Predict the structure.
Amino acid sequence: MKSIKINSLTMFLLFLSPALMLAQTTPTALEIIQNVYNRPTGEDQAGELTMTLINSRGDQRVREIKQYVKEFGKDEKKIMYFIAPADVRNTSFMNWSYDEAGRDDDQWIYLPALKKVKRISSDSKSDYFMGSDFTYDDLGDRHPTADTHKILRQENLDGEECYVVESIPKEKEYMYSRTVTWIIKDKWIGLKKEFYDEDEELLKTLTVKKFDKIKGYWIILHSRMHNVQKDHTTDMDLANLKVDIGIPDNEFTERMMKRGLR
Amino acid sequence: MRFKFAWLVLMFAPMIIIAQELNLSGYARNYTGALLQSGGEYSIVQNTFNLNIEQSRGKVAFKANPYIYQYPGQEMEFALREAYMDMLFASIDVRIGKQQIIWGKADGVFITDIVSPKDLSEFLLRDFDEIRMGVTGVKFDYYKNDNTFELVWLPAFSPTIMPAEDGLWFPRLNLAAPATMNATQEVTASLENSEVFAKFSGIRSAIDFELMAGFAWDDDPTMHMTKHLDPQTMQLSSLTVNPEHHRLTLGGGSFSATVGPLVLRGEGAFYSGKYFNSADPKYSGAVVEKNYLHYLLGLDHTLWNWNLSGQFIQQAIMDYEDSIDQDAYENTLTFLARRDFLRETLTLELFSYVGLNNSDALIRPRLFYDLSDGFELQFGANIFTGDTGSFGQYDENDMVYAKVKYSF
């Protein structure tokens, strides 16, 4: 969730002549990714996240989370309360992420059995979140400068005009060798994304199944991650989404992690 | 009486629940363990029912956590782990009643975490939420940004629950003569004998910290001993042991910080008024009061998808005398390795305490498997090595066990 960042360069571009604007209709690959990264999604959000884990036999396991997200300047704080399954109920997770390139997130987890908030390292971004097909990094906003981007082509996907952008990580040990993203031109939503493993083989495909304009912001409401190598899938649904509701700053504290949902 | 009360609660619970629309969660569990020595004799066969009953109405809330331990052929054990009410204000929370209060950053070690006493009926083998006992008291929390000031008043002292004297886990006392063990001298519940704890804590991007102080009672009794000499030989012939709790004043703190890919943790406390057993005849009751330092440094790291954690713990007796039973410095290591497989349905874990002074250890390999969401199978072993020390004393108690747990 990123708000529009207006700087002096943007202001300068706004006042350029229409002719010059036309000459620059195709943005660079980095600009496209920055537009996705900076796509405004409101000052704060509250919603119910349901992850349905489906294995190759079609068996389903469901994880339910209530999450709150808020912008703090250019940084973002998120708190998640686990509702289901029963053995993780009342566990909560808090993440503070920073706009500063290269700065790691701060993360804490509250385990009700231990009655303790524990700081955890955000270094293991390749870990899968709650056994789903989404890694912690897949769920976060990867900084545009972390990869080198290239426009492969422009094509229509599901009725939407898209830029197809390849992103190759600058970090050698990153879990993906490259990703390819289909980005809707006028909405800056990644409609589809392919993740390739260290051997350049297709590992996972992320498909956005539903998005909507809520309070003027384009928000992804349903997406599906399919691990094509292991043939299992995670469906992620965001329901009862409320945007710009004025969530107080103190919702993102140790106090609330311990208190849980009430 | 306890048995009848349990049934009464169980009978009326459904009606209460329907009437009040309470939030219910909990688990049912079977826990069966067998000793590796003694021909596979069962060390434990336990059925557990644990219920969390919660309700929240805006600025007020309550929770009760009754539980039942049932052992075949024995009386059912029914108790309340927690039963408290919350009053929630803009920047102050007040919790009144029986509650578990957990402080500090250490894992599996109790340094500043001394508000809730321990239930050591099964040594340190129970899950931590079962080791911590609820204490009756009032807890005030005042919040300012990411800082918390906490004040706890416990009107009555609750001691550590020690293992049964005739059970597997009663600690070895290493007495020099046959002893008569008297009942622990109780601390009378009174205003004068109440306990007070305070903590200031905060979380920052760089560091989490806690500073604490307490005017408490030592949860573990000191073994005061009276020596009886044979009138003819003037040699020690027997002992009378009088367990007694003493006042304890302590101050300490803890921190947790991210250093690159590592999480560095530390915790320490200075105890004033701690008693130790001494062989020096000049000390009445064979005990001497000394100041005492207990601290820990720990590191957490994830490597090749394994969550790894190590801690070094030292207990140091200040102004040490050679006649004291305990070593001047007692050093312990803990180690944890844990990894999930099969989309977090299978977990392997190895946790170990290693006593460096006595070369003893408790090694706890465990395997967890989620047969279905909320239905967990656990298989594990508790292996004690060494002959003496906190863990070596249980060298004959190596065991394997299985737990089946249904959460709702």
Q: What stands out?
A: The longest helix of chain B spans residues 2-20.
